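User: quick one - fold this with iron/sulfur cluster bound?
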Amino acid sequence: MIALRLRIDPLPIVEPLIVRLRDDKNCAPQLEEAVLVSRYEDYREYDFEGFGLTVHVPSSVSLDGDVLMIMPGQKSAHRLIRADSKHNTFLVTEQCDQLCVMCSQPPKKHHTDLFAQFEEAAELAPAGAYIGISGGEPLLHKQRLFAFLLNIKATRPDLRFHVLTNAQHFEPSDMDTLDKIGRDRVLWGIPLYSSRHEIHDEIVGKSNAFETLETNLALLMRAGASVELRTVVMRQNADLLPELADYIATKAPFINVWAIMQLENIGYGRMNWTKIFQDTSVAFQSVKTAINLATAHGLEVTLYNFPLCSVPPDYRQFTSSTISDWKQKYLGFCDGCSSRLTCGGFFEWYNHAEGFHRVGAI
Ligand code: SF4
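Assistant: Sure. Structure tokens for the protein plus iron/sulfur cluster:
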């Protein structure tokens, strides 16, 4: 697994520090850049404004252009941006007002506001980067998030963001801000699990969540926002996917894409796995019908986190290699599979003993 935390020798700092690493010893470092001085088998030394920064990584790992966040007193740095990856995400809060049965990042009560540091990091991102904003629920800190997006728009208009939100916290008064942030700069990724309010509310653990979501989808439509609806397939909602396809086609035809997703077995997803995992490698019919209905209505549909071989051949065109590179793995039978280059494989923590029954090299 690719490391998102790197061991460092602690620095005598009192505030979080954002720093971009550079390999080119002859470059003229900008403010917030550390330049490589020495490289050894399992650690590197950088010069940062006259001070030494030691990062412990194997020599095979590329760090050139990576952006780190170093917290006071900590012996590891957060690798916020990997310059050679398309899977960079800022976890802006661990607080959430929902309690979803499959949550991969169970919420915590405490919040540390690091928006200023995330802004600094984004400003150091490679040209044209697409950065995920995740939580927790990022819009619990809506004003801070909006300010972050507006500030970055001014300083780095080339960057785009995917913001994962439960859409419970938009208000009519946000219309102007959404307009200023811009339709093309942010894709709002919003989970919707069923067209039946009681099932959606039960899955997300919050009363009236469906009703609020429905209201706010209409608001996002009026704002001209870009929206990705996300539906994790579970035993609780699998049979109702065709009904949900009809609902989306009728009530939210403006969305950019409907992502039908497989479960990630970590956090509450792991805790509840045996009660919620729907083995779509042997029970794909409802997904198939939902795709047929949605595409017939002109919706774009994508299958996220489905191993390619778990999907019937006619529907593999809808799959997308979405598992982030740092938590992606392949199993023994993937060796020699002709589709390995286009398949996203499995989550690092996937347990095949309780997973897909019908998968194998194709
Ligand atoms: S065998 Fe492995 S690489 Fe091939 S399609 Fe299945 S999961 Fe993907």
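One thing worth noting: The chain has two domains: 5-80, 85-354.
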